[in-house]
Amino acid sequence: MADFTRFRTLVFADPELQEQLWNELDRDAFVVLAVGLAAARGLQVTRTDVERALETGRLALLAR
Amino acid sequence: MSAELAGWIPVRAYWDGGRFMLDWCRVGDVRFSEPFFEQTVRRMVRRPFNAAFRVQTPIAVLDEMASRRPGLRPNGLIFHLSRSGSTLVSRMFAALPRTLAISEAPPIDAVLQAARTDPRVSDDDRIGWLRGLVSALGQPRAGDEERYVIKLDAWHTRDLELFERAFPGVPWAFVYRDPLEVLASHRGGMSYLMSTANAGPALDLDAAAAYRLEPDDYRARVLTRICSAVLAQRPERARLVAYPELPAAVWEQLAALFGMQLDERDVAAMEHAAHFDAKRPDRIFASDADEKRRVATTLEGAWLAPLRCAYAELERVRTSVAG
Predict the structure, then answer these.
(1) How close is the nearest chain A Cα to the Cα of B47, in Å?
(2) Per-residue pLDDT reduced to its tens digit, B197-212
(3) Which pLDDT score, from 0 to 100, does residue B318 have?
(4) C-alpha to C-alpha distance for B32 and B41, rounded to whole angstroms
(5) What is the pLDDT of residues B200-258, one digit of tens each?
(6) CB-closest option in A25, A26, A34 to B52
(7) A–B: how many Cβ contacts below 8 A?
(8) How confident is residue B301, by pLDDT bands cut at 50, 70 and 90?
(9) Burial of B315 (0-12, 13-18, 19+ CB in 10 A)
(10) Sheet of B172-176, strands arranged across
(11) How far apart are the first and last CA of chain A?
(12) What is the ipTM metric for this complex?
């Protein structure tokens, strides 16, 4: 999970990386893309990390 | 964090551990094409990116953002009695090119209600937050927006004075219809406005007290409160728009009030938008006014008297200004 936090920091610092991820609308494809983009930057982000972040964020945003 | 939030908008405002916070979504250049802000937000939340990289900030971040990138100044504010055509008005403005129309954004309501959770929140706090939110929501996204209209929730008329302090000189309109027809419409189904769970912002009542009232009585009190708040705010300075004046009043009166110069294509775009059901824009608009008037004639009770008085006064002001 620490690598997901680092990946998140990279995403917010890199508009092109952010755009690439934002444009992916399919959930499964997004997970694969995020894992791959993180790996390309030397980070070990797992599918579980991304799926957990997706579900936590979705519930939080819809709950309010 | 604020420097990284270009292309993001605040979509939720809420208390969290004693701090007033915002949730953000990245919207890019997406237009607010749905009738209500919340519908656009839900579309944005479905994007995996916004869920996976959820951003929370304290609301104070809005100050820095507004000073760094002030959004559009609102051309006008639209208040309403509910079920009176205000969504149509908002849709007609949204149909104009280079125009941003925000309709009933929940973060604005959350800011207005913030002091209910923490009484230490002052009017100055709410004004500062409101200005920051309106600036953040009014960021040009397609790049060419120059007009900005905000439609509020029905119960926000009680905060009219706060809006006038927050946005001095910004004109506002109040859209309404015969309140008996509005009551008839609300009889047809539960709404957020008329839920007794929301008796606090609607009437300063607790839910238990509200629940003890007859439903029509409760609804009539809510509508009376909305109208009374408008009448208390010297509506001669604003524009009162009655339902039968729609849709023409939008291009004939409101556009000028909001400082917009319309050409023939603009008017045609507004007329086109008015052909469709404002809340279900995939359907052609079909008037149900006759049915509402029929139900309205069946309403009776002493609780109607204050509402009838408020409506008569609104009509007196509207027709005297028009005349």
Answers:
(1) 6
(2) 888 888 888 888 888 8
(3) 94
(4) 9
(5) 888 888 888 888 888 889 999 999 999 999 999 977 778 999 999 999 999 999 999 99
(6) A34
(7) 61
(8) confident
(9) middle
(10) B99-103, B147-151, B76-80, B172-176, B239-242
(11) 26
(12) 0.96
Please count the residues of chain A.
64
Domain range for A38 is 2-63
Name the pLDDT band for B63 (thresholds 50, 70, 90).
very high
CA distances from B292 to A1, B181, B186 (A): 57, 5, 10
| Residue among A8, A24, A27 minimizing CB distance to B53 | A8
Structure tokens at B214: 């007859």
| Cis preceding-peptide flag for B35 (omega within 30 of 0) | no
Q: How many domains does chain A have?
A: 1
Percent of chain B with pLDDT over 70: 97
- The predicted structure's pLDDT at residue B321: 76
| B73-84+146-323 CATH, one of 1.10.3470, 3.40.50, 1.25.40, 3.40.462 | 3.40.50
